[in-house]
């Protein structure tokens, strides 16, 4: 592939409703849509999923724009790419900045698949074309959580995840469970607890949760082992798993039974696939995490979820879960709780240029020499 141009578009959209986690409330979202174009004008699409502020990881839209423009895009444009799997190595001179790397790398994967005239899910060896879909309740109080959960269950989502935090945990889960005895339900704490809260975490065992996600610190793998040993509920790690080595450590220590894989958090599709393969070999379950993303990242999440280890419904909801109108055509739709993969080349979605024009706040094109 001879990549000649990269277009970086910063976009901004209001969420349909505020989204609350243990770390705060989100009302609007910025993101970066990345287009890589080859000498024939074929375009690959990627999305850098960092937020405006570093509340989930240390990256932001601004750090990603800097890294892309000043560091990663020049590395990409410096020489031809034969296969997207080469990029991990090329970017390895740069530490961290996983979301910036993943945004660019996924765009190159899309371009590669389009050049092969094959769906990207087929290119990566995916076998599942029907992806079960889950939705996330992010409410600041119990009543709002119940209203959200009712709507998601009605819409057919196959698994509900609920954000918990001290003061909105045991009671919240108890209330949701008493209304919905059989709905696959799980909790995500986004690191809101410490080992002092073990009794509370153990008490959640009574609600038959699918799993509890990231109860302890963002960088912890060791203490989660103690939580997993005390709880019947499987522990799932999200923030703690940033590299393949982290996944190896968590497996060696038996710190969790499940890993939430996010392409952005782990630095790209290649690494996401490696973590999937490792988990599969070691009997851990995996599912695809979400980032309240726009359609391009949603499309890449669907591609990843086609791999055979992805059995549990992930945080991949319909475009209309968060957005009045998404930036892709067609939008991602959930039918009977499932999303059907496209058999079109690449990610199978195109940019909605009218919508892009409405929501773009900044755009820059970088050309190779
Ligand atoms: O994309 C979604 O639907 C929500 C997924 C979610 O919970 C989330 C969204 C943004 C940042 C972190 C997380 C998380 O999984 O912890
Ligand atoms: Mg999480």
Automatic annotation (TrEMBL):
<keyword id="KW-0460">Magnesium</keyword>
<feature type="binding site">
    <location>
        <position position="188"/>
    </location>
    <ligand>
        <name>Mg(2+)</name>
    </ligand>
</feature>
<feature type="binding site">
    <location>
        <position position="238"/>
    </location>
    <ligand>
        <name>Mg(2+)</name>
    </ligand>
</feature>
<dbReference type="Pfam" id="PF13378">
    <property type="entry name" value="MR_MLE_C"/>
</dbReference>
<dbReference type="GO" id="GO:0043748">
    <property type="term" value="F:O-succinylbenzoate synthase activity"/>
</dbReference>
<keyword id="KW-0474">Menaquinone biosynthesis</keyword>
<feature type="active site" description="Proton donor">
    <location>
        <position position="163"/>
    </location>
</feature>
<feature type="domain" description="Mandelate racemase/muconate lactonizing enzyme C-terminal">
    <location>
        <begin position="143"/>
        <end position="234"/>
    </location>
</feature>
<keyword id="KW-0456">Lyase</keyword>
<comment type="similarity">
    <text>Belongs to the mandelate racemase/muconate lactonizing enzyme family. MenC type 2 subfamily.</text>
</comment>
<feature type="active site" description="Proton acceptor">
    <location>
        <position position="262"/>
    </location>
</feature>
<dbReference type="InterPro" id="IPR013342">
    <property type="entry name" value="Mandelate_racemase_C"/>
</dbReference>
<dbReference type="Pfam" id="PF02746">
    <property type="entry name" value="MR_MLE_N"/>
</dbReference>
<protein>
    <recommendedName>
        <fullName>o-succinylbenzoate synthase</fullName>
        <ecNumber>4.2.1.113</ecNumber>
    </recommendedName>
</protein>
<dbReference type="InterPro" id="IPR036849">
    <property type="entry name" value="Enolase-like_C_sf"/>
</dbReference>
<comment type="pathway">
    <text>Quinol/quinone metabolism; 1,4-dihydroxy-2-naphthoate biosynthesis; 1,4-dihydroxy-2-naphthoate from chorismate: step 4/7.</text>
</comment>
<dbReference type="InterPro" id="IPR029065">
    <property type="entry name" value="Enolase_C-like"/>
</dbReference>
<dbReference type="InterPro" id="IPR029017">
    <property type="entry name" value="Enolase-like_N"/>
</dbReference>
<comment type="pathway">
    <text>Quinol/quinone metabolism; menaquinone biosynthesis.</text>
</comment>
<feature type="binding site">
    <location>
        <position position="213"/>
    </location>
    <ligand>
        <name>Mg(2+)</name>
    </ligand>
</feature>
<comment type="function">
    <text>Converts 2-succinyl-6-hydroxy-2,4-cyclohexadiene-1-carboxylate (SHCHC) to 2-succinylbenzoate (OSB).</text>
</comment>
<dbReference type="InterPro" id="IPR013341">
    <property type="entry name" value="Mandelate_racemase_N_dom"/>
</dbReference>
<dbReference type="InterPro" id="IPR047585">
    <property type="entry name" value="MenC"/>
</dbReference>
<dbReference type="InterPro" id="IPR010197">
    <property type="entry name" value="OSBS/NAAAR"/>
</dbReference>
<keyword id="KW-0479">Metal-binding</keyword>
């Amino acid at each position: 592939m001879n990549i000649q141009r990269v277009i970086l578009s910063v976009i901004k959209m209001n969420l349909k409703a505020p989204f609350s986690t243990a770390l705060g409330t989100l009302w609007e979202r910025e993101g970066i849509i990345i287009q890589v174009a080859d000498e024939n004008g074929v375009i690959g699409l990627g999305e850098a999923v960092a937020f405006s502020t570093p509340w989930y990881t240390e990256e932001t839209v601004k750090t990603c724009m800097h890294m892309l423009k000043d560091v990663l895009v020049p590395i990409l444009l410096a020489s031809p790419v034969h296969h997207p799997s080469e990029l991990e190595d090329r970017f390895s001179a740069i530490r961290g900045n996983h979301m910036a790397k993943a945004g660019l790398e996924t765009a190159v994967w899309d371009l590669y698949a389009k050049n092969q005239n094959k769906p990207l899910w087929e290119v990566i060896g995916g076998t599942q074309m029907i992806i079960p879909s889950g939705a996330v309740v992010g409410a600041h109080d119990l009543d709002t959580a119940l209203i959200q959960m009712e709507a998601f269950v009605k819409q057919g989502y196959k698994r509900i995840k609920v954000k918990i935090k001290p003061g909105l945990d045991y009671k919240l889960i108890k209330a949701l469970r008493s209304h919905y005895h059989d709905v696959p339900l799980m909790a995500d704490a986004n690191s809101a607890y410490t080992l002092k809260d073990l009794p509370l975490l153990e008490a959640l065992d009574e609600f038959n949760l699918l799993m509890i996600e990231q109860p302890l610190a963002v960088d912890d793998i060791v203490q989660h082992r103690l939580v997993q040993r005390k709880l019947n509920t499987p522990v799932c790690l999200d923030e703690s798993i940033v590299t393949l080595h982290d996944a190896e450590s968590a497996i060696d220590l038996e710190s969790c039974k499940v890993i939430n894989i996010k392409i952005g958090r782990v630095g790209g599709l290649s690494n996401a696939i490696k973590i999937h393969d490792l988990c599969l070999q070691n009997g851990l379950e995996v599912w695809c995490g979400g980032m309240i993303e726009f359609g391009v990242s949603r499309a890449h999440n669907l591609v990843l979820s086609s791999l055979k280890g992805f059995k549990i419904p992930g945080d991949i909801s319909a475009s209309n879960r968060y957005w009045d109108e998404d930036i892709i055509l067609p939008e991602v739709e959930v039918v009977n709780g499932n999303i059907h993969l496209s058999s079109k080349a690449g990610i199978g979605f195109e940019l909605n240029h009218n919508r892009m024009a409405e929501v773009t706040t900044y755009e820059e094109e970088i050309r190779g020499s």
